[in-house]
Amino acid sequence: MAHYAFLNENNIVTEVIVGKDETDTTHDWEQYYGAIRGQVCKRTSYNGNYRKNYAGIGCTYDTQRNAFIAPQPYSSWTLDEQTCGWYPPTPMPTDGKRYRWNEPTTSWVAVE
User: Fold this and answer.
1) What is the dihedral of CA 96, 93, 54, 64, to 10 degrees?
2) Virtual CA dihedral for 78, 71, 28, 23, nearest 10 degrees?
């Protein structure tokens, strides 16, 4: 079983479906599903084996990186070119407490 993402004209993911695994070589499944919908279709995977990140609705497919990229969560966060994931300017503390990001102060705040 594999997952496939459909893209709109701006390369934004509009839907993700479960489809045939590409070990079934009777078709190029991206082409097959894309032709049925009339949209570009790209395979994705939960474990990042395909295109770095799992494609969720609203993610962008970056053709240069051949990767799915989630929307930027905060303006201060930067994109890691290797993982295509977003990272804060300071890492979250690892002291066992729960934290949330505070964008105005660009810092982590403990959640009580």
Assistant:
1) -170
2) 70
Q: How far is the CA of 21 from the CAs of 26, 87, 88, 99, in angstroms? A: 11, 32, 35, 39
Whether the CA torsion 92, 50, 6, 12 is positive or negative: it is positive
Please indicate, yes or no, whether the overall pTM of this predicted structure exceeds 0.90.
no
Other C-beta atoms lying within 10 Å of the C-beta of residue 101: 16
Q: What is the CA radius of gyration of the chain?
A: 17
- pLDDT tens-place string over residues 6-65: 999 999 999 999 998 877 788 899 999 999 999 999 999 988 788 999 999 999 999 999
In the chain, the DSSP E strands lie at 2-7, 13-19, 40-44, 60-62, 67-69, 78-79, 86-87, 99-102, 107-110
